[in-house]
Amino acid sequence: MAKTPKSNLYEDLKRQILTMELDPDADLDEASLSEKYGVSRTPVRDIFRRLAGEGYIDIRENRGARVIPMNHSTLRNFFLVAPMIYAAIGRLAVQNFKPVQLLDLKQTQERFRAASENMDALAMVLENNRFHEIFGEMSGNVYLQPSLGRLLIDHARIGHTFFRPRNEDMKRRLQVAVGHHDSFIDALGAQDENAVVDLVFEHWELSRENMEMFIAPQGLKADAFLGGPATQLLEKSS
């Protein structure tokens, strides 16, 4: 399908939010975007409404649109529920995936691995996000998919340091994550629900410390969010 100025605006805003080119809470100027993409203000407003429905931006009455913020409340909720939703999505993906979706997952993994070898942080963020989006599509669950999509926005933003390793240990963790993706594909192919769920928790723990590198300067600790009822429930179910 040919790209249009309107679709380019939609894709560019999503990409810029996921990769932190647009900061959380940044204002979006309708007039400048209209001029930059060569579209009238009506299509810009349409895109804003679509992105708001998907959780990327917030539209405030009489104050315009802004990138969805990240604050103590949203981060707390993220750390509490993310592993549970990822695990539920994983189980349903095993039960419902289609061969064409598994092929899409494999091709996305090839791009993610190439980006990791080239240390292309922006490409890693986007391909990792797409990898986990496909799991949501595989699940075929109209209730969980929107929740997954919203989680992935903040996962990409909180975890962006993971794809910019600063030392050998971080590089090693990144390679482990690449390997996890391969294992996810193998477990799906074998229709092994338990293996997929086990991998979900391994994958989560791997990225958790790197996420803390992002939130620590703001005085927020993931550990404070991971010892409550949600974590206890996860431990019982795993």
UniProtKB/TrEMBL annotation:
Alphabetical list of Pfam families matching this protein:
FCD, GntR
InterPro entries found in the cross-reference section? GntR_C, TF_FadR/GntR_C, Tscrpt_reg_HTH_GntR, WH-like_DNA-bd_sf, WH_DNA-bd_sf
Could you list this entry's UniProt keywords, alphabetically sorted.
Answer: DNA-binding, Transcription, Transcription regulation
Question: SMART domains this protein is in?
Answer: FCD, HTH_GNTR
Q: Which residues form the HTH gntR-type domain?
A: 3-70
Which PROSITE patterns does the UniProt entry name for this protein?
Answer: HTH_GNTR
Record carries keyword Transcription: yes
The GO terms describing molecular function are: DNA binding; DNA-binding transcription factor activity
Q: Reply yes or no: does the keyword Transcription regulation apply.
A: yes
Q: Return the protein name.
A: DNA-binding GntR family transcriptional regulator
Organism name: Rhizobium esperanzae
